[in-house]
Structures are given as structure tokens and as C-alpha cells.
């Protein structure tokens, strides 16, 4: 009985996640998307959130973040220096599970913090921004992110709804041809301007200009209606995401997920080779594994 209740809970919440918003993945893509496996937890976050269930969130609801806009030029100066030194870059190893697929088109990053204390390299190379964000309540993760000319990040949902995403333009084309689209609503970055959105809506980004784009990228804790609900959010946020920490330089912390990601990705590469060889066989094997796992759990 308990197993069937859990299965029903997953089905109902997964359906809610799928039909939430205007833009959706195809059924089979959504069925195996990470947002489906997180659906019960994410639905809890949506139900007790104090912010509206919309793709973009009014920055006025987060007055503590005004300090970032007030000091955007100082933050930009550190980003310019980092980029000039080649430190805002893709990971050279399979140690960034969260953003690994973005590296294919040249997307780069430099982590200041990730659900923990600042990375040692951030304290060394961008002390001003690192200290600034460390003192702001609710800021869980911060990085500089670049999107070079011609780069396009695929449509996706982020897995966990316990945070909201802040983007602040630092070095941008200031051009509608360099944009992010969240649930079908487009926004283009501008120097010194910030936008907040719910990253669990389907979104993608593209830069069709000839200029690089560098932003301050931050995860902000989703505010909840009750203190107990906020405590649940903090518990799961720390449990699930702290292990996804990725290093910038030797000596930085690497979370547990990323310590084993290279091994996991080796299996994924075998799957990709099978898909190239015979796409039909690939999907047969993939769904056979899924059905076998479900049968093992529920039968």
C-alpha cells in the first residue's frame, strides 16, 4: 500500500510539474528528466512559497540584493580581471555534473561559493565580490558565467525548486540578440541590470552577437510562508546541492557527486556511442532498464 501511495504521489506531482507553465518538454523527455524525480519535493516548495508562481520574480521582493546592483561596477572589475586571466572557463575535467552539458558550446564559469563557504580560489582572485555576497542573507551559490558568441544553452529545467536564480549583467552586448527565455518570455541582459527568475520553468539562453556575455549568476533561497517550511528547504538544499560543489583551481572543494561524476559519465558515453550506432536499440535498452528498475521497486 505504501509503495502504491508513493507511486501515485510521484505521478500526480510529476504531472503538475509537466503542465506548470506554458512551455513543456515532450512526454518521454519529461518522464526521465531530473525534475520528474524531484517532483514531490518541488511541489512542496511551490505550495509554501511566498513568491508568485511566475517565470520572472519582481526584484523588489528581495531588497537585500540591492547591494549587488549598487556595487556592480566593482564586481565587474573583478570579473574583467578573471576573464582576462582565462579563469572564467569550462571545466577541464568531468567534475561539474550540474553544468557539464553547457561546456559544449564554450559556456564558462568561476565559482565564488556553492551552498557552503567560499572557494579558496575565489577568496584569492575576487575577494571583494566574495566578501560582498557572503554577507547577503539567502545567497546560496554564486559564480561568474560567460556565454561566448555563437553559444546556445539547450532548453532545460533545473532540478531543485528551493532556490530562485539571479542574473546581473556585467559585460554584455546590451543587445536583444543575447538573451534568456524563461517559459516563453524573453529577457536580454544589460550591464548593471539584474533579473530574477524561477529556473524550474523550462528556459534556454543564446548569444548570436559577436561579443561575449559575462554575468553574476546566483542561487537565492526561495522564501517560504512558514519557518518550518523554510527549515525543510534549507535541509534539502544543503543535502542535495552541497555535494555538487565544483573546483575552479587545485585546492578548491569538490563535492561528493562530482568526485564520482567521471565514472558515471563514462557509462553515459557508452550510451551515447550506442545511440550513434543504433538509435532504436538505444531507446529499447534505455526503457528496458527503466521498466526493470520500476518493477524491482514496486513488484
> Level of helix content?
40-55%
Poorly predicted runs: none
**What is the strand tally?**
10
Element order: H for helix, E for strand: HHHHEHHEHHEEEEEEEEHHH
CATH classification class of the domain at 56-254: Mainly Beta
Q: So what's the overall shape?
A: globular
Q: How far from one another are the termini?
A: 11 Å
CATH topology of the domain at 56-254: Jelly Rolls
Indicate the mean pLDDT.
Answer: 92
The total of helices stands at 11
Q: Over the alpha carbons, how many angstroms does the gyration radius reach?
A: 20 Å
**Structural class of the helices, strands and pairings?**
alpha+beta
Biggest sheet overview: 6 strands, antiparallel
Amino acid at each position: 500500500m505504501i509503495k502504491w501511495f508513493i507511486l501515485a504521489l510521484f505521478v500526480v506531482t510529476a504531472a503538475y510539474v509537466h503542465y506548470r507553465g506554458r512551455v513543456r518538454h515532450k512526454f518521454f523527455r519529461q518522464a526521465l528528466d531530473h525534475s520528474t524525480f524531484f517532483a514531490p519535493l518541488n511541489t512542496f516548495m511551490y505550495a509554501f512559497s511566498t513568491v508568485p508562481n511566475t517565470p520572472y520574480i519582481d526584484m523588489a521582493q528581495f531588497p537585500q540584493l540591492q547591494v549587488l546592483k549598487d556595487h556592480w561596477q566593482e564586481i565587474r572589475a573583478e570579473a574583467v580581471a578573471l576573464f582576462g586571466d582565462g579563469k572564467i572557463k569550462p571545466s577541464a575535467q568531468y567534475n561539474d555534473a550540474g553544468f557539464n552539458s553547457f561546456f559544449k558550446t564554450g559556456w564558462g564559469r568561476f565559482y565564488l561559493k556553492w551552498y557552503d563557504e567560499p572557494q579558496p580560489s575565489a577568496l584569492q582572485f575576487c575577494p571583494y565580490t566574495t566578501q560582498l555576497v557572503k554577507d547577503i542573507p539567502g545567497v546560496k551559490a554564486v559564480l561568474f558565467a560567460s556565454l561566448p558568441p555563437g553559444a546556445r544553452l539547450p532548453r532545460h529545467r533545473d532540478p531543485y525548486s528551493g532556490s530562485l536564480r539571479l542574473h546581473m549583467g556585467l559585460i554584455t552586448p546590451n543587445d536583444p540578440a543575447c538573451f534568456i527565455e524563461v517559459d516563453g518570455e524573453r529577457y536580454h541582459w544589460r550591464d548593471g541590470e539584474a533579473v530574477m527568475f524561477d529556473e524550474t520553468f523550462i528556459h534556454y539562453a543564446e548569444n548570436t552577437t559577436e561579443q561575449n556575455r559575462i554575468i553574476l549568476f546566483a542561487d537565492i533561497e526561495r522564501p517560504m510562508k512558514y519557518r518550518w517550511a523554510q527549515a525543510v528547504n534549507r535541509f534539502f538544499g544543503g543535502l542535495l546541492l552541497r555535494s555538487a560543489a565544483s573546483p575552479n583551481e587545485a585546492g578548491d572543494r569538490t563535492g561528493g557527486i562530482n568526485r564520482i561524476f567521471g565514472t558515471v559519465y563514462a557509462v553515459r558515453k557508452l550510451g551515447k556511442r550506442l545511440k550513434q550506432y543504433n538509435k532504436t536499440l538505444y531507446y529499447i535498452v534505455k526503457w528496458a532498464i527503466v521498466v526493470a528498475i520500476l518493477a524491482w521497486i514496486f513488484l
